[in-house]
Design brief:
Elements lengths: L1 H6 L1 H13 L23 H8 L19 H11 L1 H12 L3
Length: 98
């Protein structure tokens, strides 16, 4: 995934924008302190920050009271649909890991 972000920064930015339109963003938990070997040439701040990420996770808070409602499946399905750009990206990386 990191190599794809480095080689296709605009595609990554489009992914971030697509997620943002649905109110989703990557969690920024435990990034690497510095760029990994082979990625030292990444100079754009947003791309460097992405390359430092250990995981690419999105989440959405669902109010506790909805967990016990008949509409919880609607919430889960809506989240899954909204996160599809990330899933599609992951499948693309798996198919072409370059």
């Amino acid at each position: 995934m990191r190599r794809k972000i480095e080689t296709c920064p605009d595609a990554f930015r489009n992914l971030v924008a697509a997620l943002a339109t649905k109110g989703l963003a990557f969690a920024e938990a435990d990034p690497k302190k510095r760029l990994s070997t082979g990625f030292e040439v990444v100079s754009e701040p947003d791309i460097a920050a992405a390359v430092k990420q250990r995981n690419f996770i999105v989440s959405r808070n669902i109010p506790h009271e909805r967990w016990y409602s008949a509409t919880i499946l609607d919430d889960v399905i809506a989240f899954a649909r909204d996160a599809c750009p990330l899933v599609d990206c992951g499948y693309g990386v798996a198919a072409d890991p370059a």
